[in-house]
Amino acid sequence: MSKPSYPVSGTGLGLRRTLMGPLQDNPPDNINFLEVAPENWIGIGGKMAKDFRFFTERYPFVCHGLSLSIGSPAPLDETFVHRVKRFLDEHGIRFYTEHLSYCSDDGHLYDLMPIPFTEEAVHHVAGRIKRVQDILERRIAMENVSYYAAPGQQMPEIEFINAVLEEADCDLLLDVNNIYVNSINHQYDARDFLTSLPAERVVYFHIAGHYDEADDLKVDTHGAPVIDPVWALLETAYQHFGVVPTLLERDFNIPPLPELLTEIDQIAVLQAKHAHGNKAHNPGTASGHTG
Known about the structure:
- This protein is 39% helix and 17% strand.
- It has helices spanning 17-25, 46-56, 78-91, 119-136, 157-168, 176-185, 190-195, 228-241, 257-275, and strands at 11-14, 33-36, 61-64, 96-99, 102-104, 108-113, 141-143, 171-175, 202-207, 211-214, 217-219, 246-248.
- The chain has an eight-stranded parallel barrel with strand order 1-2-3-4-7-8-9-12. A two-stranded antiparallel sheet has the order 5-6. The protein has a two-stranded antiparallel sheet with strand order 10-11.
- Helix 8 (228-241) packs parallel to helix 9 (257-275).
């Protein structure tokens, strides 16, 4: 499998409604792309729809979904997938990603639950991903998620992720912070895990902050600044994969925009540091993966 062009390039930020005013008033020059959850915008009208259109006309966009529930035992919500397709087409969204987890059965669980790391689950999830890609008429990427228990585990997490990606023939949204959090909580080597993921399937990176519950328990909150060990792991990712587009997530305790832009600048500094000699890994910007 050859590596297609990345759907976006440079540095990105998760667009939250509290940031829309500041971003409109003083558009920064260090944000190259934006990301939203489609569930938060599908069917929105009025002023908010106009404000959203302001951004989609000015920035490349990717979508990171919340409720596809790809690992759920319940039937795939194909009506929802069709709504997502219309949204992606309407706004020219360059790529759609989701979590390698589930959040529903008979009802919505309002949390991302871990999929059992089993052969049966690999086949179940891969089949559902293929169906989503068929409906959307485009490739999608699954994100490695943070988790705090591994019920029914029959294989290591890294084997499970790689098996799903291979069988589904889908791409990977690589979350650097989730690798760090899981490496502490489940006692594995973050660098070994990172470098065992398939470079040819990576579409972009996520980086975020988390909460230190204890020395051996980290909680993925997206509610704090990125810490030094995660920055170091991001640098390792650039060394291994090349300079991949990278997006900063901040969902809670959102600080003033200038503080977020400082972290965006830090991403850009690391990207510039590792750009020399890695150009073969960074194909640049494309209009998105199709087919």
